[in-house]
Amino acid sequence: MSTATAAAHPQSHFVRAVLRQRGFRRLLGVRMVAQIGDGLFQGALAGTVLFNQDKAADGMAIAAGFAVLLLPYSLIGPYVGVFLDRWRRRTIISRANLLRAVLVLPIALYIWQGHDSPAPFILALVVTGLNRFFLAGLSAATPHVVDDHMLVTANSFSATLGSLSFSVGIGAAGALIKTVLAASFHGYAPVAALAAGFYLVSALLGRSSFTADELGPDTAQRARSSIRQAVGEVSRGTIAGVRHLAAKRGAAYLVLVQAVFRLLYGVVLLASLLLFRTVFNNGEDVSGSFGTIANAFIAGGIGMLLASFVTPPVARRMGGWRWVTAVLAATGAAILGFGLPFDPVLLLGAVFFTNLAAQAIKIVTDTSLQHECADDFRGRVFSINDTAFNIMLVAGMYIGALTLPYTGRSAAVLSVVAVCYVLAAAGYAVLGGRWARRVGDDIAQPGGKHLTSVT
Questions:
Q1: Domain end marker among 224, 252, 282
Q2: In terms of pTM, does the model score above 0.70?
């Protein structure tokens, strides 16, 4: 779509067009209900580990928890498509949520009893893995309910509302703990159990809203090779995807700078969790800080929502590489200005700006991958990007665990992180800017049709 065409069809036009698709509205409803459940469930888990006076973990234990929850799926993520191309997506969406509803109940029982056992952690790992499988099924199903030229708008809109729904779930968990329930095992367990109800409703919505084959894969296109052959093909294809991405310099620079952002973000995330649990709660009863950190999740969700609406028109006007450079530098400034005073209210400002930058960079990166990479490589390069996305977050949290004190309060560490964000902005401005000017092709140009249709 040309710049002139984009101007003739403002951003709101694309949103309205997507929301007119009945199938998309139903798929969006399935996602939003499930992700409210995710917020409740993960809020209960976080409260049990981080904000329970009887079971307070240190920074290394928190980093280990994120590693166990994020890395296994990140490593097997590229192979999920093997099953998505064989099983009906409606079945994946409904049964994954139904199974999650069943598994959450024994987890809630374990939380209620307060016993130290690996069982609830293992079950939580399965629930988290099923969530990623569920989201992958939604992504694969989206082209069956949205016209091709509106796919990017649909993806951006659903991801944004999904993140907002997750934040609502976290906020609801915090409100329940603060006003109705207690910040103890007997308070977090009912919140986890409540998540099972949302998973069940999402499963029923998914099953009742679509016919068996409506979400694909199409019978004629359903993969016929054996799973063993498909796994081997994925392994070889992933290597080819890395090579393809390396040849697309503009997209490769963005994947690299997003990985750096996530590395630093991991340090900031751990510092924030520790600060809310100790310093902002007088370092005594950690249970009292759960409601405050729920506000941080809401602030982050608002930042992501704003980024989704601001990024497309701004990036079209100034160029994707300039916008990424600006939000990287702004993140460093926000950490210095809002983080270093170590004030709980000001820190919400740092959370807001950091999440705004994270979403802005993700939108530009995803758009660049769609724009530059060949269609038959896109699935692989997105899997590579997602794997780097999670691995670098966990690596950042481990760095934070090694460098931050128990309270998370370290002006030196946060200052280094802020400076690194500014240096990353400068480095990307040189590399990404030079490449964009050299090839004369940036997502702000007429060739960058994908971003013109992002929400």
A1: 224
A2: yes
